[in-house]
Write a structure and sequence with these properties.
The structure holds three protein chains of three kinds. By secondary structure, chain A is mostly helical. Chain A has helices spanning 4-18, 25-42, 46-69, 72-79, 81-86, 92-121, 129-154, 161-185, 193-220. Chain A has one domain. Chain C has one domain: Rossmann fold, CATH 3.40.50. In chain C, 28% of the residues lie in helices and 25% in strands. Chain C has helices at residues 47-55, 86-97, 103-109, 125-135, 155-170, and strands at residues 9-18, 21-31, 36-40, 62-66, 71-74, 143-147, 174-178, 189-192. Chain C has a five-stranded parallel sheet, sandwiched between helices. Chain C starts with 8 loop residues before the first strand and ends with a strand. The chains are: A mainly alpha, B mainly alpha, C alpha/beta.
Chain lengths: 221, 243, 193
């Protein structure tokens, strides 16, 4: 199998994500907005913000994955691109993975990289651990994007599929959220948590493409 | 064996008497279990006093929550591999009933929790959390099926989601267990192993069997309805075509 | 005029159900080099569905399709992204298929030289159709499956389609097309649904 169709799928999805000139700015704005609402909602007490900060970022990442993924396969199904990808001569699972990866690169990864800044806003002290946390956010958001993409593929032909994606993906996000938050807690049992986070992300990357492939064939049917 | 059960006619004939039998036996078992649980067995102060008697509904519901999702996953798998229509009919029939028993488990757990934990909901209880996510899996499954425009698409989409969910259940369970084991400080309800008094065992077992029979009977009735629904749709389509 | 070469595409016993409605049943067809098969039928009889089954996009309820030769799919949706220009679109698919066709001359041949760098959202329906047709020329594939190839095209565009089909058949290719009105090329056979 030649990797050419995968590179094209990746390129096309990147182009789509950046279309309109906004690119990663839009998800960043979303994350920023969501995060800024929290202190307004729960008050500006330093200790409280310090405690909830890492968790808020996980929630914001999960939400932003859902928001950005809503259209990735739906648009393909509507404009006929999906038919072409199904015939591109590469495994559909690999193409779906390439597209998911492209969207993660333009929405998930920038958010993760941006996270130290938001952590500072949540009263965290500027320490190297914030950079490690950015890596954990990146790893975890990859799992969010892969499971979210399964929901997106399943609801590719559904009008107002966004709500459906959230309902489908929510239970699948649980392990990532738990391992991720645990890894950042620094409390007991947190030493092995990054490994668990990595393992559950690997699991998502291994299983989700096949489910997406079956779902996309269904969407084209 | 598969081909025998995959035949809707044979299923209709079999369930014609099997479903009522399940209803009767199930109701008798549940009534006996309730009578034993509510009046006969002694209460256990350690488990919260009289409120622990809710366990004779809660434990069977918890068992059915897990069993029904497993059944949903198996039916989906069978449909996905062999495309027996009856397997899809079974999956479609199981989902709402599974959701009802899962909700029952959550509600009774919450009622039991209020006097023992002092709160309606305890985020540190691994079992309650796992059952909650199971409930979401059921909801997502039903919503997805409902959103598809033909029954063939509903069957395929549902099967894919049920299998993805089933693969994730062990991981969700593991992560939730880990989450709660780190936060738990006070000992809450423990029902495992030797702590379980023998007097409770029989009523619980019989109740669980009763709930399972009732569940099985309801699934069969729903399947019978669905088979006939599809037959009606087919006849109407044929009549339209001919006319 | 049936040629004696090995078939490029064979369908046997094809049947399809949508919801509870039977679209067609027991359809058999065989396409050989140089053939042009035209699918006929009113709206809703399943022309598009049959084409999609032949393309492998839709799973038939009964029967099977044998595809010994590569296939080009041309559906009623063009597969263009709003921000894509015709040139970028052809570049992308040339890359995906590993083709080194001369994209500039393909664009010129389809009358797309002028709007080659205009984003698809500003193109007319006819220009979008031409872009999708140009995709067929990126790579030589023996079987073309065309769903309503004349839609949205003017007289000049329709003549271009006919020319493409004639060239393709002359080179030993075959065409299966769902066409609602009159075909501008001589069909070797018709299939009524």
């Amino acid at each position: 199998m030649s990797p050419a169709p995968l590179l094209s799928a990746f390129r096309q999805s990147l182009g789509e994500a950046w279309a309109g000139g906004a690119g990663a700015l839009l998800p960043l704005g979303f994350l920023g907005g969501a995060a800024v609402l929290v202190p307004l909602g729960i008050g500006s007490d330093t200790d409280t913000l310090k405690a909830v900060g890492p968790g808020i970022l996980w929630v914001a990442l999960a939400l932003s994955s859902l928001v950005t993924l809503e259209r990735i396969f739906q648009a393909d199904a509507e404009d006929g691109t999906l038919d072409l990808w199904l015939q591109a001569g590469a495994p559909v699972s690999a193409i779906a993975a390439a597209k998911t990866l492209a969207h993660w690169l333009s929405a998930g990864l920038p958010l993760a990289l941006f996270s130290p800044l938001l952590a500072l806003m949540f009263q965290a002290e500027a320490r190297p651990v914030l950079l490690i946390n950015a890596g954990l956010y990146a790893l975890g958001s990859l799992a969010f994007f892969f499971w979210g993409a399964v929901g997106a593929a399943l609801s590719a032909t559904v009008r107002r599929g966004g709500l459906l994606i959230s309902l489908i993906a929510l239970p699948l996000y649980v392990p990532t959220a738990i391992f991720g938050a645990l890894a950042m807690s620094g409390g007991p049992g947190s030493a092995g948590a990054p490994l668990l986070l990595g393992a559950s992300t690997l699991f998502a990357c291994a299983i989700a493409p096949f489910a997406m492939s079956a779902a996309l064939r269904l969407a084209a049917d | 064996m598969w081909s025998y059960f995959a035949n809707p006619h044979k299923f209709l004939r079999l369930s014609d008497w099997l479903a009522p039998a399940f209803y009767t036996a199930g109701t008798l078992c549940i009534l006996w279990g309730l009578w034993q649980g509510l009046w006969v067995v002694p209460k256990d102060e350690y488990q919260g006093g009289d409120i622990m008697r809710v366990m004779f509904v809660h434990v069977p519901a918890a068992w059915l929550a897990m069993a029904s999702y497993s059944a949903l996953a198996v039916a989906s798998f069978v449909w996905f591999i062999w495309r027996h229509e009856l397997a899809d009919i079974a999956a479609k029939s199981i989902a709402p009933l599974g959701a009802v028993w899962t909700a029952l488990c959550l509600a009774t757990g919450s009622i039991w929790g209020k006097p023992t934990w002092g709160t309606w909901w305890q985020w540190d209880d691994a079992r309650m959390m796992s059952v909650l996510f199971l409930f979401f899996l059921f909801l997502g499954y039903m919503a997805l099926r409902a959103a598809m425009d033909t029954r063939q698409k509903a069957a395929r989409a549902g099967a894919i989601l049920a299998m993805v969910g089933a693969l994730n259940v062990p991981l969700i369970k593991f992560s939730v267990d880990l989450f709660t084991s780190l936060h738990q400080d006070a000992s809450v309800i423990t029902m495992e192993g030797p702590k379980m008094a023998a007097v409770y065992l029989w009523p619980l077992m019989i109740s669980a069997i009763g709930h399972s029979l009732l569940f099985g009977g309801l699934v069969m009735t729903r399947m019978r309805t669905e088979i006939r629904d599809r037959r009606i749709a087919r006849l109407r389509a044929a009549a339209l075509e001919g006319g | 005029m049936q040629s004696e070469a090995a078939p490029l595409l064979t369908g046997t016993g094809l049947g399809m159900i949508r919801g509870e409605r039977m679209l067609f049943r027991e359809i058999g067809l065989e396409v050989r080099p140089g053939d042009a098969l035209v699918l006929r039928g009113a709206n809703g009889t399943g022309k598009t569905t049959l084409l999609r089954i032949l393309a492998g996009l839709t799973r038939p309820e009964t029967g099977s399709v044998n595809r010994p030769a590569a296939i080009h799919w041309f559906g009623h949706r063009e597969g263009l992204k709003p921000q894509e220009t015709p040139r970028a679109h052809l570049d992308l698919w040339a890359q995906a298929w590993g083709s080194n066709a001369d994209i500039a001359s393909i664009l010129a041949g389809m009358g797309l030289a002028r709007p080659a760098d205009v984003a698809a959202r500003y193109l007319s329906a006819g220009q979008r159709r031409r872009t999708a047709l140009a995709r067929l020329l990126l790579e030589q594939r023996p079987v073309w499956l065309l769903d309503e190839p004349y839609t949205a095209l003017d007289a000049e565009g329709r003549a271009r389609v006919d020319g493409l089909i004639a060239d393709h058949r002359a080179q030993g290719g075959a065409v299966v097309a769902a066409i609602h009105g009159e075909a501008g090329f001589a069909a070797t056979s018709e299939l009524a649904l």
